[in-house]
Write a structure and sequence with these properties.
By secondary structure, the chain is α+β, with helices and mostly antiparallel strands. The protein has a domain of 57 residues. Helix content is 34%, strand content 19%. It contains two helices and two strands, in the order H-E-E-H. It has a two-stranded antiparallel ribbon with strand order 1-2. A hairpin with a 2-residue loop joins strand 1 and strand 2. The chain is extended. The two termini are 32 Å apart.
Amino acid sequence: MRKKETADCDSDTCRIEAILTVDERGQIVIPKEVRESAKMGAGDRLALVSCMKDGEVCCVMLIHADQLTSMVRSALSPVMKDIIGEGLS
């Protein structure tokens, strides 16, 4: 029997920071308090990550681009070790 997967999101890690409005040009404003808390500044590069459910985008996240590399590296490192390790056997 397969264990049901759940997101690791609780009141300590996930919360609604703000309700944003998309303007007529498709732009949004991230409130100053959120930008400061997330250490976002002018010129910062952010990756927009979307999650799909039932064929539609249900969630979007912003991740600092400089953090994205380390996140991808840590996620793929075990997989790459398996691939490289198998190739060396």
